[in-house]
Each structure stands twice: as C-alpha cells, then as structure tokens.
Amino acid sequence: PYAHRTAAPIHTPALAPRITAPPPRGTAHHSLRRTERASAARIQEPSAAAAMRAAGAAVALLFFFLLAVPGEAAAALPRFAEAPQYRNGEGCPAATAAGVCDPGLVHIAMTLDAHYLRGSMAAIYSLLKHASCPESLFFHFLAAAPGDGELRAALAASFPSLRFEIYPFRAEAVAGLISASVRAALEAPLNYARNHLADLLPPCVPRAIYLDSDVLAADDVRRLWETRLPAAAVVAAPEYCHANFSRYFTPAFWSDPALGARVFAGRRRPPCYFNTGVMVIDLRRWRAGNYRRRIERWMEIQKERRIYELGSLPPFLLVFAGEVEAVDLRWNQHGLGGDNVHGSCRPLHDGPVSLMHWSGKGKPWDRLDAGRPCPLDHTWKSYDLYIAGDASSAASPASGPALSAW
C-alpha cells in the first residue's frame, strides 16, 4: 500500500541549507575551570603542606572530571548540515494530543553516541526520506549519561521537525556483566542498552523497531513496523538459517550436558542465527516475561564459564533463537562492513533491499575518509550530513555503541 506514496520535502536546498556550530559547553565545564584556577592559586603558597594540599585537590578534581564528563561528551561533536524536511502524505494518521502515546506513531529506537553520530545522522535521514508518513516517526535514543545536551542540540539542528526523546543510559547498569569480546568495540556498555528498552521507554509504547547506528533505509519503515507478531513471539527479525549456528558458542558450551542443545529443546523452531541490529520488539510482552533478566542470567553464566566469544549477540540467541518471528531478509542486508579479518568489501545478498546494514568492522564513513571506500559506501555517502573539514571530527575510534559483530 505504500509503494507509490512518497513523502514530499518541504525544501531541498541540497544538504546544507544551514550550518550549525556545536552548542556552547555546559556550565559544569566552566565550574571545573574555576576550580582548576583556584587549585593553581593555592599551589603558589610557599609551604610544602600547602603544595601537598593543592596536589591532592588537583588529583580529586581530575577523578571527578573523568567520572562526570565521559570522553564523548568532553570532545566537541562533529558538525552536520540541516537535512531537508519531509511532511506526511495523503492517508497518514492524524496527530493527536497524546504525544509519545499517540497510537498512530511508528516507534524507532537507536543508541546515540558521539563516536558514531555520523552514522546515526545518515540513518535518520534515510528513514525520514523513505517514509510515507515521516511526521509519524518517533525516535527513542539511548545515550550514555550524562552529557546528552550536545547530542540533543545536534539532532534538533539537523532535523528541526524530528519527534524524539533521549533516555540516559548509565554504564553501571551493565558494567559488571560484560565479558571480554573478540573486538573492543563490542564491549562498549551502550551495546547492551537494547536490553533495557522496555525499562526506559514509556509504558504506553507497545512495540519498537530497534536499529543499529550503521544502517540505511531504502524503503518505508512502516512496512517493518506492521510485522505481525503471533502471541508466542516477543521479537521479530530476519533469520539466517543457513549460517553455522554452532560457531556462536564455544566447544565448552556444546559439550556441557546441562547446556548445548538442551538449551534450545522445545522451542517453536530449530534455532537460527539472527542479527540484533534490526529487530521489532513487543515491549509489553518483553516486560511481562522479564526478558532483560533472562538475558542477564546468561551474561552471568558467561562470567563464570566462557560459553561464547562475541559481545551482546549470544545472550540474545540463547534466549530467543528458535522463538523469533521471521522477517523478510530484505530488512537486514547485513555484513556490509566487510570481512572482520581481512577488511574486504562485501556485496549485497541476492534479492530485494529495504535496509542496508554495515555490520562488521568497517564503517562507510571511515573508509570514505581514508580514500578506500567499498562500492556500496558511495550509496551511504548520499545520506551523509557531515560537514567535512571540521578538526574536531576524525574517523571514529575502535570503540562505540550499537555495533553488530557479523
């Protein structure tokens, strides 16, 4: 029903009708500077005791600064152009006064982080551009806390009409549960924020589409939103049953008589691999079944005995594999980040494409900046709002949120 309905842009002055500078730093930064100056003045006292007191104060100040201002908040954000604005087409649900509880909304959840903000901006732009009812999209962003003020300002500057909310996610909620992974990027606490969606989003939100930061939509996301979830299903996602499922767990897992195949016995279907970067989640059923705690229990077992090598994916497989409602593969053409070992480019899978996913080690913005793009990176480039030449914005580091291993 949406094949011939396209949202019309309000204005299309290329990609940069207005360039926005990074917002001013918060008052906490100025307070810290005043404290630093006071500490420096005390160091000028002639006595050794005074010098020791000043040194102690400086150490305490540094410790407070590291706790209160995470690296992504302390560094200046990249600069982005303003995207064209899109309005609802004919047949879209009328807005109500219910706000986020409006039953006509399509809810999209993503993590938000300075390191991968460039990818998130492109993803948002692509979702709005291809939506038949862009004003009916509501974005829920999970961001490292504190420090979401600059992220909020950046979003509002590039997408003035965007309907969104930012939810602070505290690393300590998962810090004691994370195990070492094959890549440092997969150990970032924000990768595990998706486990807490049902706790953070308002109870009136019935379901959400969770998307990684390195995706690009090529179709109307409402089609994915309308995926039917039977009563027995909590999660819907594209499944890849041709993949070698056993490789996602260690030999110790498969050889343990209390684990292995016994874990998946009695499920609706044989377990298959699915990528957690694109999921439709029934939040009410998630809450009712306490699925966050089920996932965390497997993370605790992993700390006791190593049963997998990847990051946030295996606990999802342990809980949901064999119970996932299958979605057409067109909604997660994943693996475009390339081979994790050799970094080689990967083409699209056979079949139609509704969403492209640069899962894996390579990211299109990094490869474009390095002058070594893969062919499909040029498609991503057409949605890139990043203003090149900003000294504060180098290629993203090796750690960050919302990344899929495969």
Automatic annotation (TrEMBL):
The keyword Transmembrane applies. It comes from the Eukaryota. GO terms for molecular function: glycosyltransferase activity. Keywords: Glycosyltransferase, Membrane, Transferase, Transmembrane, Transmembrane helix. InterPro entries: Glyco_trans_8 (IPR002495), Glycosyltrans_8_dom-fam (IPR050748), Nucleotide-diphossugar_trans (IPR029044). The keyword Glycosyltransferase applies. The chain crosses the membrane at residues 50-69. Pathway: Glycan metabolism; pectin biosynthesis. Its EC number is 2.4.1.-. Belongs to the glycosyltransferase 8 family. PANTHER family: GLYCOSYLTRANSFERASE 8 DOMAIN-CONTAINING PROTEIN, HEXOSYLTRANSFERASE. This is Hexosyltransferase. It comes from Aegilops tauschii subsp. strangulata. The lineage of its organism: Eukaryota, Viridiplantae, Streptophyta, Embryophyta, Tracheophyta.
